[in-house]
Predict the 3D structure of the following.
Amino acid sequence: MIEEDSLTESGEESADQPPRTIWQNRWLLVAGIILLVPTLIWLLLDAGKGPAEVPEQSEAELMAMEAEMMPDNPSEELDEPGIYDATYYTAEQVVFPDSEEVIGVEVDGHACAYLLGGMNDVDQHIVHHDLGDQKLTVTYCDKSQCVAVFDRAETTAEIRNGGFSGETLWLLYDGKRFEQDAPDIPLTNYPSERTTWGEWKKQHPDTLVYVGLGLSFGKTLKENDTVDQELQ
């Protein structure tokens, strides 16, 4: 044989002979095909299964995000005047428990308590009251538990129930909606106290009290008691 084509005594290719490519080595080609074909088949079958399932933790996170974006109490716009010319009673005329919460207001020795349980209904969230020489608007949101009392002495615009913002009561004032506790609301807050009926009576035994138009939480008035129109 010619020396360039022969193998060395150790069985290796001659240093002058170029190395064989993969295409010249049939056994390597066959082995590669054997490994490649099943892999391609597996990939094709797996692709037909559709998108991978979302992990449970990721689903919970998505639901939490959706809940934040979609509140349980969506906003609802209203336009209601609130309660004018309400009836007020003396402490001796009512029978609801001392533990009931009230908004207490005092104006130059004239005291009045507004029973929160009597302001629960949507048409009773706002009570307008001229107490002594002071024109007041008392507001309460049963969902946010927010209370506020406003001075109406320097305004001619109505303070109306504008509905629910999704967070708290909307007040409709001069054609615009403001959340009840908004810092930019163009109304002056009047001092008030949120306390229990029992505590308020101790401090103001001659107080009047507003109990609302309904009895949604229980009995409020004694039997056969008549309204004293002079108390209004």
About this structure: The CA atoms of residues 39 and 135 lie 84 Å apart.
